[in-house]
Amino acid sequence: MENKKKNSKIRQLIFNLKSYLSAESDYYQVVLVEKITKIISIFILGILLSVLFLGLFFFLLFLLAYFLIPIVGEIISFSIAGGLLILTICLVILFQRTIVVNPVLRLIVKTIDSNISKTKKEEQDETN
């Protein structure tokens, strides 16, 4: 009789543990999907803005070239615009870590860390 009570308590404990682990895994899957979605949306927005700014920069270089034609001539004005483009490319390559890598890394870490901080706060509130 006593053995049956122990078995039923153990079965109940195992059942509760399985339910808890299932709920926890579901929760972390949702958190993971949320983080991945935010990171992908940040990358898509970054790529879209980069393309738009690149197009704007390209048209501004043409504006500069056409503005300089009466002053220095057609070939030299387009050479100046091309030189500015090459200079910009070199600067981006030279300062790649400072301009591109660090801000993207900081944004990703901030996105991941904000969710972790929220989770820890919620867990602390539940325990209190």
Protein model, in words:
The protein is mainly α and 128 residues long. The chain has one domain (27-127). The chain is built from three helices and no strands. Helix 1 (2-72) packs antiparallel against helix 2 (74-94), helix 1 (2-72) packs antiparallel against helix 3 (96-127) and helix 2 (74-94) crosses helix 3. The longest helix is centred in the N-terminal third of the chain and has 71 residues, at 2-72. It is rod-shaped and about 100 Å long. The two termini are 39 Å apart. The model has no long low-confidence stretch (mean pLDDT 84).
Q: Can you lay out the helices and strands and say which pair or pack?
A:
Blueprint: H1 2-72, H2 74-94, H3 96-127
Helix pairs in contact: 1-2, 1-3, 2-3
Q: Using DSSP, what is the number of strands?
A: 0
Can you tell me the number of structural domains? 1
Terminal CA distance reads 39 Å
Main beta-sheet strand count, sense and barrel state: none
Count of helices?
3
Outline: rod-shaped
Oligomer: single chain
The residue ranges in which pLDDT falls below 50 over 5 or more consecutive positions are none
**Percent of residues in β-strands:** under 5%
Radius of gyration computed on alpha carbons: 29 Å
